[in-house]
Amino acid sequence: MNLTFNWKLIAEIAGAVLFVLLLVWFFFFRQTTTLKPATTPPISTFDSQSTVTVPDTSTNAAGLSEGGELSSPVSTQKIFKISDGPVAGATLIQDLRPTTTLARFVMQESGHILDLAIDSPGSVARAVSNTTIPGIAHVAWETQTVDGRQAAAGVALQYLDSSTIKTVLLTFPVASTSSSTSSPVRVQFLPNDAMSIAASPDGKSIAYLLKTASGSDGYVAGASGINPKKLFSLPLSQVVLTWPSAGTLLITSKAAAGVPGIALSIQVASGAVSPLLYSPGLTASADFGFEKLVYQSTTQDSRITYAHDTKSNLDRPLSFSPAPERCAWSRTYASVMYCAVALTSIAPDYLDLWHQGAASMADSLVAYNLLTGNTIIITTPGGTDGGISSDVDGLAVSADDKYLLFVKKGDRSLWGVRLY
Known about the structure:
Layout (H helix, E strand, L loop, with lengths): L6 H23 L49 E5 L3 E10 L2 E9 L5 E5 L8 E4 L6 E11 L2 E13 L2 E8 L14 E4 L4 E6 L5 E7 L4 E7 L6 E6 L4 E7 L2 E6 L6 E8 L5 E8 L2 E4 L5 E7 L4 E7 L5 E3 L9 E3 L6 E6 L8 H7 L7 E6 L5 E5 L12 E6 L5 E6 L5 E5 L2
Antiparallel strand pairs: 1-28, 2-3, 3-4, 4-5, 6-7, 7-8, 8-9, 10-11, 11-12, 12-13, 14-15, 15-16, 16-17, 18-19, 19-20, 20-21, 22-23, 23-24, 24-25, 26-27, 27-28
């Protein structure tokens, strides 16, 4: 007898079973969590073997081993290099004295953090922190709006210590036009093995997940890690946490092509958990108002990206198929997102291979408007606009939508893009 298997049907059945089990847990077995300080894990501090050197934030970075004397790029091309690698992560902020846009980035090998003014010829990089933390694997920025500008209030750095995931929070002094006072960089550890970290949109709080025997617990704390409170519990451990909107967290299961996935919203005020959608190979990203959820559904045969309306619960396919995790939302235009995409055909499971380091493709940068459905190719690194052919990672956009920046996967060099 010839036995054939419909793997797509099997995946759909498995996904339906998982979804039903999650619904049963949600409606019948989930316990309401009361925010009590007594349920919080201890916050650790630097141990005796850690080296902490926090410099004056006005210290010039010239002479640091990473990059030497970095100066602002003078290229007039649309794409320009900001720093040689390896850079672990970067963001764009705005300074007041004088008013300018800064690229703030973390050197992967040392954990040192540098600022470099963009489009200010002659400016030199300065050290924000010389705290030495070798081998940075993940970076999560905490940003605040101060006097109408975007400022980096802190950063969460993750690295591996033997088999333990360590997470250290660095809280920066944020200057304003009404105050010239400054305070030192504050250094604080989160509990070991935090699985996923996300900062609130206002930069004043941070959320993280800790694995439990039955799944994971979610905690919310102040930006510097103080006063953590247990907010929710989930029967899932392989999940990703983001904080797109002030009052709402987004949880998605880790994606793999054809594997059932689910997206959940968490209310920050109450810890209430609500299922949003189910799809195989799910990756998702929400806008700042949590009105639109862009998600990608991936099977072994297809890859489709949709815009999901959280109020009407209706889906609309996009005109192209970007991976939501490789996009950044505009802070000026609520319906616009910037994405890194390959303009050539790629396999449905490309994102899985990309994460594994088994696949790489030269990307273009595009802008997509969810209201009009229009897609515009901004530029292609290595083309007539400058730069070099790049597999784009870590895309970020400035508060005024004037600049993008990205890290080139591979050598981890940092690049900027002028949008206008």
